[in-house]
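Section 5.1 Outputs to date
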Amino acid sequence: MLNDNGVVDEETPVTTVEIEAMIRVMLRYQHVLSSALRIGLRAEHFGNDAAELKFYFLFYAMHQLFERHKTITKHMLLTELNAWHTAGALHLAAGEFEAIAAADGFIAEAFDTPKDDSHAGDAERQYGQDILKRFINARMIKTEVQDVVRSTTDAAPVNMPTKLEQITKKAQAVRFIGQSIVSAALMPEFGAHIELPPPPVPTGVGWIDNFIGGFRSGDLIGVLGPYGGGKSTMMATLAVRQAEHFYNSGQNKLSVFICYEDDAKRMGGLFWSAAARIRRNLFQDNANFWADFTTPETIMEYERQLPENRNGEIIISEADRYRAAKVWLDQNFVLLDFSANSEHGGRGTGGVAEIVATLTALCEERNMQIGFVAVDYAGLMLNRELSQNKSTKNQEQIWRQMQQLPDDLRTMVAAPFNATVLLAHQLAGGDIKKIPPYKHVTHLDAQGSKAFAENLHACMCLNTRDQFTNVSTINWSKIRYCVPEKYHGLVKMDPVIVDVRLVDDEYVICPTSKRIIRRGDVTPLSPDDAAVAARTSSNHFTPVDSFSDDLNF
């Protein structure tokens, strides 16, 4: 019987047809049989009526053979049953033994049919396991609980807690029945071929490649930063560059940016500027910006410094760059407006489950795979989901959700879609105000949960921008899969276009002035340092380049 949700009710009695399918699966996939025996399934759990008697004898033989030999073959099982039949030990109705032992019977079919490793084969095994779980719950777990209840009088027996604990452990084991237990780290035979994990694929973005080598499919990476510190700009830059990479390398993949904060009207220009390397303000100040695009005759100075124009021979204008970028951005990039905007279906209140459903539909509609996902940002995503449930206003519940969110994204998005996922989150506002811009912050300063980075493969932390140089420190405070030469560096947001560059070769942290300054510049000593320097040297100025690049102050 089906319940109101269209799912088989676990209380529905298991039919003889289902028992036959269940035993067929146990013979084909004998680790399922092993799990059932380990939990305590025995022949006496069969035989509720005459129609099930054949299963009693069959399972008894299966149990005995598996206990002795740790495996069962068709020849072993049929030989055992035939011996019992000849000796008159099988008390079956006329023709029942011949039916189960026939050359075209379900026992022969279980052994002779080649195993199907496709989705259909997995479905068959799962179907048999689901029947087995219902069978064990009804015939064994429920019966044992009833026996304990019947054995009690007005006063519960002393051993009742122990018995109930044993039954609970069996019930828990039923949930994971059929899962084989193997070591995932067996040392291979000497000289055997080794399958290595996929290497990182360079992104072309220095503040990614110089620290973690690039992106690996299935990875979940955190991007932490202060409010207004440039997280969205960094994520937008990465999402666009990934779309460009997928297009240029001929990969049928999508780069997806999921925005919970601002709607598509406010965010669109961010991605157009990043894709075409066009002035970001152009898209914000004038709805009719087409007429303001530069042409080959009206090139601006910033355009001469772009990578595509630095050879000094070919100058590509904004209009030409826009047309070229539109081709690959429209094909390989998707902006999902999850700002609860009614124009886009009010999406953005369903948490990770909503992301999974949307990405699945996107794959089907576009007939493409998901290669990269940027989620901006965690705190707003969780708050909006929790607000749908009036009973989850307790702050502690939000903290727990924040700790759980990375694992949910890893197991439900990154791994199943084989995509790299970036998750943005805020640094704690009160804490970040106490950390000067020249210092490096860590994931321990994350808002709402210091355990935020536990389930991340890597986490990059961005500090507040230095007010004089607009340069920020970044610190890869967690990297699970490699040991980089450096864990931290300096990045700068481009003042004209949406782009972020690694600028370790241009700027340095000066310990004297406790600021970020240009390399080669000199900075006045503080009064205390000047007094010390006066006793040892007449030079009151310190060359910045004399300091180590990667001092962490």
